[in-house]
Amino acid sequence: MNMLGSFTATDFFPYFGWIIDVFTGHSRRLEKCFHAFDNFYQQVIDEHLDPQRIKPEQEDIIDVLIRLQNEQSGAVSLTVSHIKAILMNIFLGGVDTAAITMVWGMTELALNPEVMKKTQEEIRSYVGNKGKVEESDIDKLEYFKMVVKETLRMHPPSIFLIPRETMNHCKVNGYDIYPKTRALVNVWAIARNGEYWENSDEFTPESNFTRNSCFLLLTMASGHDDVLGAINVRLNGEKFSDEYGYVSGVKTVPKELN
């Protein structure tokens, strides 16, 4: 994770930045991280290919990818490198971001007892005596979804979106943006802009997310990325609502959070 947030000269000086990265040791550290991840993913794949492995009742994502690789029924041939790349997206793009969102969500609920009370009441009213929040319940929990979105607004898992690169020449606010220019979108600054959000520095789910629009949150983006955002809300939300909405009996703010 330190590498993800570190300075990379190549990103800012594409033609000669790699020289700076070599002298600063960034290239060596990046190569070390790459081999560590590659060895880990290979180990996981080998474990799934082990003939003595006990077959689970339901396939996991790696089983599915290996099966698709063996079938080769699609237009694109799936290789081990493709499987590793998909695993990289899942682990780096899903695990850490979900954990960050859950921690900040619980923190904000602890700091805002009224919001926590409304969230708990909504979840308990739908879940009843089942004892567990299921994925099918998430769509019915309108206020809870507002809480998750407000958490993503105030505490986006990453300050910047994944870097984009312009394809054609364009003008933005009078500035010439040339092809191959790398663009960084600061979603943290946008989400704290009082011009677009009510009480931008306060945790107020009902004020900012009464409308149902996928464009309100750039942290989830839209289009194809909106699917990933929806999955994040569902998977993260199921655990989140279990921990703090239904099971938790916390009614006061811990002293260290005051």
* Class by alpha and beta content: mainly alpha
Overall pLDDT, averaged?
78
Order of strands in the sheet with most strands? 1-4
Taken in chain order, the helices and strands follow as HHHHHHHHEEEEHHH
What does the largest sheet look like?
A: 2 strands, antiparallel
How many strand units? 4
- Distance between the terminal alpha carbons, to the nearest Å? 29 Å
* Overall 3D form: globular
SSE blueprint:
Blueprint: H1 9-12, H2 17-24, H3 26-49, H4 61-71, H5 80-111, H6 113-127, H7 135-138, H8 142-154, E1 164-165, E2 170-172, E3 175-177, E4 182-183, H9 187-191, H10 205-208, H11 224-246
Antiparallel strand pairs: 1-4, 2-3
Helix pairs in contact: 5-8, 5-11, 6-11
Brief characterization of the structure:
The chain has 258 residues and is mainly alpha-helical.
Describe this structure as you would to a colleague.
The structure is a single chain. The protein is mainly alpha-helical and 258 residues long. It folds into two domains: 17-48 and 61-110; 142-242, no CATH class. The chain is 55% helix and 4% strand. The protein has eleven helices and four strands. It has helices at 9-12, 17-24, 26-49, 61-71, 80-111, 113-127, 135-138, 142-154, 187-191, 205-208, 224-246; strands at 164-165, 170-172, 175-177, 182-183. The strands form two sheets. It has a two-stranded antiparallel sheet with strand order 1-4. A two-stranded antiparallel sheet has the order 2-3. Strand 2 and strand 3 (175-177) form a beta hairpin. Helix 6 packs across helix 11. 17% of the residues are buried. Residues 219-235 and 246-258 have low confidence and may be disordered.
